[in-house]
Amino acid sequence: MISRFAPSTTGEAHPGTLLAGLLVWLDARSRGGRALLRLEDLDVTRTKTAWADQMIEACRWLGLGWDAVVVQSDRRVAHEAALDALAAAGRLYPCRCSRADRSGGRRGPDGSWAYDNTCRGRALPADGWRASGQPLRAQLDDDPVAVIDDGGLDLSQTPARELGDPIVRRRDGVIAYQLAVVVDDHDAAITDVVRGRDIAPSTATQVMLQRLLGFATPRYRHHFLLLEPGAGKLAKLHGSIPFTQLRSRHDGPALCGLLAHAAGLVSAPVPITPAELVAGFDWRRVPTVDRVARWGADGLVIGGA
């Protein structure tokens, strides 16, 4: 059993990030498996080396040790090999549609504007996909994908229709998330993917890409999220309650206790280490309802949604 924690390094670690890392680590350790840390730093317009370094430090501070650390930007050769394979199979095409072209159309399962595969059939440049100055999409099969994750969440879709063919290389040359995650999981021999349920709508697309590339499909599990309150609407934590703020008020065991209590793993938010949680870890104790994280006078407070 090999799992991975794959945070993007586009900002400081926050409580939601650390909750995800804790659940990945506990799932792997409780099953005698390996757990990798993969720093997803491909978006050069938003990532910073300092945030990648801080992610490693935040995990160590919380008490999470990894069997290996993978830096996604080091894996360009593997990502390009996957693009070569898709091109050789006639699955790659340039797309001239802008985001504005899709807006006002229909919404996909993830809430984004779905793509109607408008540019399917467009040929790559004579010199190959590397010569294209446009975003590249992978043409999926128009078949349904049946996926039910380990928590019973039904993720079945016909992704080519409900979301549209995914971008696999952006206009600026950056390898897109959907392709990179599939290639990286395969090359690391990942057997189990544990992640927040905000990513769940991408699962069917990733399964289809795995099939096109001849990769095995791992098991999936999607857990609850920590949200922030605001204006009658809950939003996922994005930069709220950053690690520097957390560390100024809590130490690692104290924060671990707060996260473990929110996850139903302990009866009270008392200081504890991840290692002390391994023996009693059970997904049946973990709630499926999202929780709200607030910053109070005494530091982090996590309550019901």
Which regions are unreliable across 5 or more consecutive residues at pLDDT < 50?
none
Q: What name goes with the CATH superfamily of the largest domain?
A: HUPs
Gyration radius, in Å: 20 Å
CATH architectural label of the largest domain: 3-Layer(aba) Sandwich
Tell me the count of domains.
Answer: 2
The biggest beta sheet is recorded as: 4 strands, mixed
* Morphology call: elongated
Number of helices: 10
> Order of strands in the sheet with the most strands?
10-9-11-12
Number of strands: 12
**Intertermini distance:** 33 Å
Estimate the strand proportion: 15-25%
Structural category = alpha/beta
Q: Can you identify the CATH class of the largest domain?
A: Alpha Beta
CATH topology of the largest domain: Rossmann fold
Explained architecture:
- There is one protein chain.
- The chain has 305 residues and is α/β, with parallel strands linked by helices.
- The chain folds into two domains: 2-66 and 224-304, Rossmann fold (3-Layer(aba) Sandwich); 76-180, Rossmann fold (3-Layer(aba) Sandwich).
- It is 31% helix and 16% strand.
- It has helices at residues 15-30, 49-62, 76-88, 99-102, 159-162, 177-187, 203-213, 243-249, 252-262, 274-277; strands at residues 2-5, 34-39, 68-71, 92-94, 136-138, 167-169, 192-196, 219-223, 226-228, 235-236, 291-296, 299-304.
- The strands form four sheets. The chain has a four-stranded mixed sheet with strand order 10-9-11-12, covered by helices on one side. Strands 1-2-3 form a three-stranded parallel sheet.
- Helix 6 (177-187) packs across helix 7 (203-213).
- The longest helix is centred in the N-terminal third of the chain and has 16 residues, at 15-30.
- The two termini are 33 Å apart.
- The mean pLDDT is 94.
